[in-house]
Amino acid sequence: MGWRKSRQPVAEAVENNVHTHEHETTDADDLAKPLLVVEGVERTFQAGGQPLHVLKGIHMELMPRQLVMLRGRSGSGKTTLLNMIGGLDQPTKGHIFFHDLPFHDMSDDQRTKVRRKEMGFIFQAYALMPLLSAYENVELSLRMAGIPGGQWKARVEHCLELVGLAKRMHHRPFELSGGEQQRVAIAKAIAHRPSLLLADEPTAELDSQMAAQIMSVFQTIIRTEQVTICMTTHDPTILEVADHVYEMVDGKFI
Ligand SMILES: Nc1ncnc2c1ncn2[C@@H]1O[C@H](COP(=O)(O)OP(=O)(O)OP(=O)(O)O)[C@@H](O)[C@H]1O
């Protein structure tokens, strides 16, 4: 594909090529090219001295501002793939390009740099700091991303408003419902303006009404924050809001 030919050397690209705060200026060309490309990805683990082939040739694309779901039974390889997309693990074989950057070729440090700037993560269990308020939890993520302190207040308030928690900003996690805690986790994950949000079973702990609220928040932030979301799920009832569903069976898409 043409857009890959203009790739800069990786180290330079990690520093220069990834535009964290320029989503507003995305033009039609940028919307037409994938944010992430997975080509022929395989992943083999050594388990008890035997090779375990968990991913067996995965091809996929994430386009800008899409909501993409990976669906499949427990053990089919969804989390393994999500870890690979997030640069937390590397393929045994195949290629992963994120924003033109070859994740399969990059060092841990290089991938970590890109991940901190460009990605947000949401997990099944909400991963909030229990002693900090909703506000402080979101602020912490801006502090860790190295965003200047002068920008924190407006951004924290904006993100908590986006997820519908403006009135609960000063509550601590134990004073919030599971769905509200997950919405704080979403505010936390988008605060530093990532272009890709990865969510592993984000609705698994929630009842259907709360799960629907989470999906509605996802749709809002795709529109307003211009993120792409890739999530895993077991839940057939939420698939209808996806732009694309990849169905995984035994390490392959069907
Ligand atoms: N680091 C590892 N070492 C050995 N085996 C692993 C490792 N990580 C994952 N596996 C195995 O790979 C298979 C797929 O696991 P994975 O967590 O990707 O599935 P999943 O579809 O996300 O399942 P679930 O829905 O239960 O989270 C499982 O059999 C798991 O035991």
Characterization of this structure:
- With 254 residues, the protein is α/β, with parallel strands linked by helices.
- The protein has one domain (2-251): Rossmann fold.
- The protein contains nine helices and ten strands.
- The strands form two sheets. It has a six-stranded mixed beta sheet, with helices on both faces. It has a four-stranded antiparallel beta sheet with strand order 2-1-4-5.
- Helix 6 packs across helix 7, helix 6 (134-144) packs parallel to helix 8 and helix 8 runs parallel beside helix 9.
- The longest helix has 18 residues, at 208-225.
- Residues 1-8 and 19-25 have low confidence and may be disordered.
- This is ABC transporter ATP-binding protein.
- Residues 36-254 form the ABC transporter domain.
- It comes from Paenibacillus rhizovicinus.
- Count of discrete alpha- or pi-helical segments spanning 4 or more residues: 9
| Helical content band | 25-40%
Strand element count: 10
Rg computed from alpha carbons, rounded to a whole number of angstroms: 18 Å
The helix-strand sequence is HHHEEEHEEHEHHHEHEEE
Stated plainly, the CATH topology is called: Rossmann fold
Strand content: 15-25%
- Please write the CATH class name: Alpha Beta
Q: What's the domain count? A: 1
Distance between the termini: 25 Å
The CATH superfamily title: P-loop containing nucleotide triphosphate hydrolases
Stretches with pLDDT under 50, minimum 5 residues: 1-8, 19-25
Pfam family, one: ABC_tran
GO molecular function: ATP binding; ATP hydrolysis activity; transmembrane transporter activity
Protein name: ABC transporter ATP-binding protein
InterPro entries: AAA+_ATPase (IPR003593), ABC_transporter-like_ATP-bd (IPR003439), ABC_transporter-like_CS (IPR017871), ABC_transpr_LolD-like (IPR015854), MacB-like_ATP-bd (IPR017911), P-loop_NTPase (IPR027417)
